[in-house]
Amino acid sequence: MAQLIEGNAVIGQSGGPTAVINQSLVGVVEGLLAEGAGHFGNPVKRVLGMRHGVTGLTKGQLVDLSDKSQEELNAVAAAPSAALGSTRDKPDEAYCERIFHACEKNDIRYFFYIGGNDSSDTCRIVNELANESGYELRCFHVPKTVDNDLPVNDHTPGFPSAARFVATAFRADNLDNASIPGIKINVVMGRHAGFLTAAAALARDPEGDPDDGPHLICVPEVAFDLDRFVDKVAEVYDRLGRCQIAVSEGIQDRDGQSIGAMLIQGEADAHGNVQLSGSGALGDQLANVLKERLKPASGKTPRVRADTLGYLQRCWPDPSPVDADEARRAGKYAAKVALEGDLDGSVAILRTGKGYDGEPYRSELDRIHLHDVAAKTKHMDPAFMHGDFDVSKKFLDYCGPLIGELPKFGRL
Questions:
Q1: Which of 153, 178, 216, 409 could be disulfide-bonded to 245 (CB atoms 3.0-4.6 Å)?
Q2: Is residue 295 assigned to a domain?
Q3: pTM here?
Q4: 118, 121, 147, 344: which is the annotated catalytic residue?
Q5: Are residues 234 and 285 in the same domain?
Q6: CA quadruple 193, 197, 202, 205: dihedral sign
Q7: Are both 55 and 115 inside the same structural domain?
Q8: Residue 388 designated active-site
Q9: In this structure, are residues 35 and 165 in contact, taking their beta carbons and an 8 Å threshold?
């Protein structure tokens, strides 16, 4: 372990906010303050927060978190979205130079960045440039992403809460779809991985109606064939007189071409990602295809509607209890390894208790290398899929313990 160097700590939030990203922020602050940060004689002189991630750092927009009371911290931790503000910026070489000038100017020696794939890569770049420049800077990535697509992690903070929202929304929407029968498409976040869309399957109550939706689940890991999709919808509609569908925004064809990107002529973010979540084009286009192609025996065109769940998925203020706890622990763990002398790394959540088949759910945290997660994407295990339009019991067992108990609704 390296000797601790004197200087300030800085914490930033990056990428899409979540229902529990502030738990991680507060966890880092608590972990540092518990070891005396901000007090005379401690190597960590002050705990600072970046306004809007590295964007604010380079502009000198910093807030001192060293004197926050536990009451203030608890209130922030329970709030959804990013309390410090977030950013989508991806630093290039010139940008990184500005980051280091800001670190030197503010005597920053401990750098904590909370985010997903792109954020972990930013942390890696900052770390490597620090090493090349001979500037001693301890860089730690704290995981966050509703997409649940960081390697090594069993799951990532933000995902269980977003999955809870999706499952609850589909459970309620299923009753709406049954009340006024028709075809309902709900587009769910998930650019490259289908975990969040797959979570819609948890809307089905094992003790409820076996014909409850969602009846089709479409994820990026399974090639999307429009003809096969139409046939499957027709099969369900002919049998039940209705059909509820979960579609990932990142569905793609057999050649890996994004269906949404082909349909949406929208702007891209700093990472080159077409903005899929902010448009209803995918759902509307699929709805139009079904209206045109489905020919029920009655001859009447079916009622087809589409919704894009959008940003509500990631910041709905009803977090999973497991998620809130693990997000806070992840932040504290990052502070712990930094103060133990580690130079860099990312925090990973590892499952140590299944949470099903009579075994309680448990998890532990570990420090992994930044290059293990930076700019890498984890996809759903093929064993999580059941055919082209559903998920398996293995996925339900995996995801169920993470989201908490869902509301039950009475029926006549």
A1: 216
A2: yes
A3: 0.93
A4: 147
A5: yes
A6: negative
A7: yes
A8: no
A9: no
Same domain for 51 and 141?
yes
pLDDT in tens, the chain (412 residues): 467 889 999 999 999 999 999 999 999 999 999 999 999 889 999 999 999 999 999 999 999 999 999 999 999 999 999 999 999 887 777 887 888 889 989 999 999 999 998 888 888 888 888 888 888 899 999 999 999 999 999 999 999 999 999 999 999 999 999 999 999 999 999 988 999 999 999 999 998 899 999 999 999 999 999 999 999 999 999 999 999 999 999 999 999 998 877 766 555 555 455 555 555 789 999 999 999 999 766 677 899 999 999 999 999 999 999 999 999 999 999 999 999 988 899 999 999 999 999 999 999 999 999 999 988 899 999 999 999 999 999 999 999 999 999 999 998 8
Residue linked to tokens 């990932």: 248
Residues 249 and 354 in one domain: no
Number of domains in the chain: 2
Eight-class DSSP state of 398 = H
Burial 305-321 (b: 16+ CB within 10 A, else e): ebebbeeebbbbeebbe
Domain shared by 187 and 97, yes or no: no
Which range marks the domain in which residue 270 is found?
Answer: 159-317+381-403
